[in-house]
Write a structure and sequence with these properties.
Blueprint lengths: L2 E6 L5 H12 L2 E4 H12 L3 H9 L6 H4 L1 H16 L5 E4 L13 E7 L2 H12 L3 H23 L12 E4 L5 H12 L8 H22 L5 E5 L2 E6 L6 H13 L6 E6 L22 E4 L3 H13 L4 E4 L2 H10 L4 E4 L8 H11 L4 E6 L4 H10 L3 E4 L4 H19 L3
Parallel strand pairs: 1-3, 1-4, 2-3, 4-5, 7-8, 9-10, 9-11, 11-12, 12-13
Antiparallel strand pairs: 6-7
Helix pairs in contact: 1-8, 2-5, 3-5, 5-9, 6-7, 12-13
């Protein structure tokens, strides 16, 4: 039997449509949460990170850690394994991960106008009209980020992404279900040897991508009949060396018969390819917080040249906003800043994000301030101007403390 891939905005009747289809067709429902749980169990991945990879924007540290790409590779591997079965209804963000080459998949989008969605949200969750609008806009922002990441476009409802787009504000649920049921039975969506082969290609590509991601590489992978193509989308200083390493790793994956590499359009942009080295005893997520823009930007560049992954916040409020989305491993914190000052940031970090190690780096210090910072939980206190070797040594000490605490040493 064929597969249904169902994507929708919030409050577009997707719950009821999916329930009725599963009941009428005898399909297995595969939701994002199911894939996350399977990926967690099979690959010992963090479930929260897997779900955030689909539903949230990439963190400011992602260009150093490739965490989003590594998480999506894990989800793809779980999804690819499921697609070896038929009679599935894949619902949610993961519906967009199924390649077009698998021709027995019917891709459906359920949409509705804002007025309909707001009314449904108010009825279902007891929200005010303003609250419902705010919630739906927030939900849609997440969908926009998702399709932008996958397809480099910002319209999650774009017709070219689907086989069917059903307006649920104009279509009763029963009629929508009947329309999908009618189409899923069409001969063009029958499982064929060719579509089964496309599933195996997806399985192989997913496992190669997962293997490469596990070695710290961020590349695109496709497969056809045992042949694997790896696309490099960032500039590389030593391309031939990288290609040789990618071929070596991919070639060791069972089922791979040949490997070729090529550069994609992103290769000609200014981004430099970075392999994430899991064995380096250096933090890959360092947040520098300082309102002296030229100083902190230069510091960030110097750290990156030394293989430290660093991002910048220019005041306390921005720093706390970043922490709410993604915790750094180490924070280098100035004290005297407009708005929320460094001491208040330090207090809140130690209270709300106790796993983050904080190094205070200030140009306005004293013995009393140093004592207060250390009592509040800073792991080190340094004064400007600071020697780069001294700062990086304190950062390595902080990272060693984290690894010892997590049992990774």
């Amino acid at each position: 039997m064929s597969v249904i891939a169902l994507f929708s905005g919030s409050h577009c009747e997707a719950d009821e449509v999916a329930r009725r289809l599963v009941e009428r067709l005898g399909y297995e429902l595969v939701e994002d949460s199911h894939l996350v749980e399977e990926a967690r169990a099979r690959f010992e991945a963090d479930a929260g990170r897997l779900m955030r990879a689909m539903t949230s924007k990439a963190s400011v540290f992602n260009k150093f850690t490739h965490e989003k790409e590594r998480s999506l590779a894990t989800i793809k591997a779980a999804l690819a394994g499921k697609l070896r079965q038929d009679a599935l209804l894949v619902r949610g963000y993961a519906a967009h991960l199924i390649p077009r080459e698998i021709s027995h998949v019917l891709k459906i989008c359920l949409i509705a106008d804002m007025k309909h969605r707001v009314r449904r949200a108010m009825e279902a969750e007891g929200l005010s009209e303003k609250e419902a609008q705010k919630q739906i806009h927030r939900d849609d922002e997440s969908l926009v980020l998702w399709v932008e990441h996958l397809f480099s476009q910002k319209d999650p409802w774009a017709p070219q992404l689907y086989d069917m787009v059903i307006p649920m504000d104009k279509t009763p649920v029963a009629d929508g279900v009947a329309l999908i049921e009618e189409n899923i039975r069409r001969d063009i969506l029958r499982v064929t040897p060719e579509s089964e082969s496309a599933v195996e290609d997806f399985v192989l590509a997913a496992h190669v991508e997962l293997k490469l991601a596990g070695a710290g590489h961020c590349v695109q992978v496709s497969a056809r009949n045992g042949g694997v193509t790896i696309t490099i989308n960032r500039q590389v200083l030593m391309l031939s060396s990288l290609e040789a390493e990618l071929k070596r790793i991919a070639g060791a994956v069972p089922g791979v018969q040949s490997v070729e590499t090529k550069v994609g359009p992103g290769y000609y942009k200014t981004d430099i390819y970075r392999k994430y080295d899991f064995d380096l005893p250096l933090p890959s997520k360092v947040l520098l917080v300082d309102d002296e823009r030229e100083f902190v930007q230069t510091l960030s560049e110097r750290l990156q040249m030394r293989d430290y992954g660093s991002a910048v916040a220019y005041d306390g409020e921005e720093a706390l906003s970043i922490l709410a989305e993604e915790e750094p491993e180490v924070m280098v914190l100035d004290l005297k800043m407009p708005g929320i000052d460094g001491l208040e940031v330090l207090r809140r970090v130690r209270r709300e994000h106790p796993n983050v190690e904080v190094i205070v780096l200030t140009g306005h210090g004293s013995r009393e301030v140093e004592r207060e910072c250390l009592e509040l939980g800073a792991c080190a206190y340094l004064e400007k101007p600071v020697d780069m070797e001294t700062l990086t040594a304190r950062m390595r000490d902080a990272y060693r403390k984290i690894r010892d605490r997590d049992g990774k040493a």
